[in-house]
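FAQ: What does the model actually see?

It sees only this:
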Amino acid sequence: MLRDIVRSILSRYGSYTEFPKGRSFDFLYRDALRRLLIKTLKDIESLRADLAEDLKRYSKTFNASPLVVSIKRRKEPLAENVVYIRHELPAISPKTLENALRGTLPIFIEYRGGLRLFLSRKTISKFSRSYLAEVLGVSKKAVYEYQRGLGVSATKYERIVKYLGDEAIERINVFERHVEPSTGEPKSELDEKIMKIAREFDEAFRMDRRPGRSALVNDTIRIVFSTEAKEAKILYERRSITKASPILIGKHEEVPCIKPEELDKVRKDDLIELVG
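And it is asked to produce this:
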C-alpha cells in the first residue's frame, strides 16, 4: 500500500505526523533541513485541481513545501529520479522520494510528455558558447536559451556527462517548491463567519475550499479551524510539530473548540485566549 511505503520511508529520515484518509494531505514531515506536506495518490492523473489548491493552501498554513507521491501515471509506473508537474505541484515516486531525502535529488522533469533537464549556470559559464553548441549538437541560440534556464532534452544527457561532467546538470530540489494558491471566496455560511473573525486580525487569511477547514496565518499566528473532531485532535496533539493551533467547530473535551452557534460572538481576543 502506497501510504505504508511512504510512512516507512519518512520514518527513516525524520519525524512525521500522519492524518486521516480522505483529505488533501496525508503526512506532515520534518527533519533538520525541510518541512513537507505530502499527499499520496496511486495515480498522479487523479490529482484534481481543487485537491491541488487545498494542498497549496495547507502548505502555507503549515509553512511546508507541498509534494505529491505516486506510483504510476495511468498504466505506466513513474520513472525514478523524474519530477512530474501536475497543477504546479511536483509529483515523484516513492523511490525518488527516498533518494532525495538521502541527498540525491532528481535530474529530470517531465514536460509536455517529454523529459528535460537543466544545466548548471555556474558550471557552463566556464565554457564558451561555441564549445557548448558543438558538444551538445545544437545552435548557439539554443545554448543561449539553456544558459537562461530553458530545459534541455533528456536525450542530451550522455553528451553532457561525457563532455561537461555530472556537475553540469542542475539537480531539481523538489523540497523547495513553493506555489501560491488561487484566491477563493467562502463556500459556506460557516466559512463566511470565520472570514469575519479574520478581518479583525488584519492579516493574511487562507481559505480552504472545504467548509470549516480554514486558517488564519501570519508570521506569528497559525490557527486551523476544523469541523472534524478526529482531525482536530491529531493537530492538537502534534501542534509542536505542525506549528499550528487547531480549533474545532463543535464540541470536544480535549481540544479547544467553539460551538457553531457561538461562532458569531467570537472575537480576536477570544481566539488568542483559546489557543493560548
